[in-house]
Every structure is written in structure tokens, then in C-alpha cells.
Amino acid sequence: MYENKAEAELYDRLYQDRKDYEGEAVRVADLIREHKQDAVTLLDVACGTGLHLAAFAKCFDEVAGVDLSAWMADLASERLAGVPVHQGDMRTFDLGRTFDSVVCMFSSIGYLRTTEDLDSAVRAMTRHLADDGVLAIEPWYFPDTFLPGFVSTHALKDGDQGISRVSHSTQEGNVTRMEIHYVVADADAGVQHRSEVDHLTLFSREEYENAFRGSGLTVEYIETELGRPGFFVGTHSDRS
């Protein structure tokens, strides 16, 4: 969870440099339209600062977002003027409407701690699906695909500011413990450091599939390239 706007903006700048948000959005839009060719509305759950959401807005006529962090939701609202972005918990949110497609990107689902949380989140997303809608969730890694001791690094320079990020991930039971350190060098403020520890649950493929089926969805797992976790794609069973 990002505790202030400055931290959310740091996330925004760093990951915008690291990820191909538009390419990922096009890939997911294609997956959705393989199941619902006429999909025109999309809800992005755990939308963060709206980078995926902005890309999805180029693929769909109407988009909306939900995020647990008020700071993230505020930045997403600033980025996408006129697009509704709500603050809410993915396990319990209720927007009072449905969408042709609902997505949860960037392994955000892994921040849930228990299978009960996972089941609740998939049920909440399913409640927001149209009768012939499509749910696409990008999971975190599975227990048998996670690499303990994995190290990630990234750095960028943007004007008079430089940002570096390093992380080290270990496994504790069925949880990934990811320790992340950021160093920011600014022409005026000098060098600053912040760190965080993220915990992401290593749900099994079966636990994801059970959550979809428990919500009345038919589910398939789609593998993706470059070692990413892939996608679970669900549709209503009576429409499959």
C-alpha cells in the first residue's frame, strides 16, 4: 500500500519505464474478444495509477477502475479525465453495474492472503460481469514456478532526477517475501532512500481454478511468453 502521493508518483514513473502497458493491454483485449467479440466496456480491478487503464481506454469504448489505495486512485483519475476510478477492496467492492469484461493485472491478486480472500475477490469481480462477459486475471507465480532468491534491478534518469530499484525475493511457506529498495537522487533534495517488504501469496493453479468455478465460471489458463505468470480467463458456464 502506498501511503502518500509522492510514493504513488514514484511507482508511476518507475513502472512506466519498465513495462509495455499498451502492448499488454492489446494482448488482454485480444484474449477478451476471443470470447466476446463485441466487448466494449471494461473494468480494471487494482488499477493502480491507471497506466493499464489508459491503455485499455484505447481498446474499449468505456472503461472504469477500482483500487484499494486512495492515492493510486487519485493519480489514475488525474491521468484519465472523465473516467470513473473508485476506491475499494477487490474482495468486497460493489459498483452497482456490470461490464463486458473485468480484468485484474500485474499479479495484484497475489496480495490477497488466503484462499477465502481469493474466492471473495473472484466472486466480487464476477458480480460485475455481464451475462456473456469475460474475466481475465493475471496471477502471481505458482509454488512450482516461483524462483527463490530472485533478484530484480532497474534504474532510470528523468530530467534532474534518477531512480533505482532493486529487489530480492524469498519464499516463506506459500508466500513470496519481496524486499524492495528505492534510491532517488534529486537535484534539489539530494539522495533519498525508501524500502518496503511486499508479501504475495503463491496460490496454486488449482486454487485459482477453484475460485473461478466456485463463482460459476468456466476457466482456462493461458500461458504467456517471457516467463510471465500468464492469465486465467473465465466465462459464465452456461455461455461456454
Set down the secondary structure blueprint.
Layout: H1 5-18, H2 21-35, E1 41-45, H3 51-56, E2 62-67, H4 70-79, E3 85-87, E4 99-104, H5 115-127, E5 129-137, E6 150-158, E7 161-172, E8 175-186, E9 190-201, H6 205-214, E10 217-222, E11 231-236
Parallel strand pairs: 1-2, 1-4, 2-3, 4-5
Antiparallel strand pairs: 5-11, 6-7, 7-8, 8-9, 10-11
Report on the structure:
By secondary structure, this protein is an alpha/beta fold. It is built from six helices and eleven strands. The protein has helices at 5-18, 21-35, 51-56, 70-79, 115-127, 205-214, and strands at residues 41-45, 62-67, 85-87, 99-104, 129-137, 150-158, 161-172, 175-186, 190-201, 217-222, 231-236. α5 (115-127) crosses α6. The longest helix is centred in the first third of the chain and has 15 residues, at 21-35. The N and C termini lie far apart (37 Å). The mean pLDDT is 93.
Query: What's the CATH topology name of the largest domain?
Result: Rossmann fold
Q: For the largest beta sheet, what order do the strands appear in spatially?
A: 3-2-1-4-5-11-10
CATH architecture of the largest domain: 3-Layer(aba) Sandwich
Q: Mind telling me the C-alpha Rg?
A: 18 Å
Share of helix among residues? 25-40%
The CATH class label of the largest domain is Alpha Beta
Based on DSSP secondary structure assignment, what is the total number of beta strands?
11
Largest sheet: 7 strands, mixed
Overall tally of structural domains: 2
Query: What is the succession of H and E elements?
Result: HHEHEHEEHEEEEEHEE
Beta-strand proportion: 35-45%
Model regions low in confidence, pLDDT < 50 over at least 5 residues: none
**Span between N and C termini?**
37 Å
Average pLDDT, to the nearest integer? 93
- By helix and strand content, what is the structural category? alpha/beta
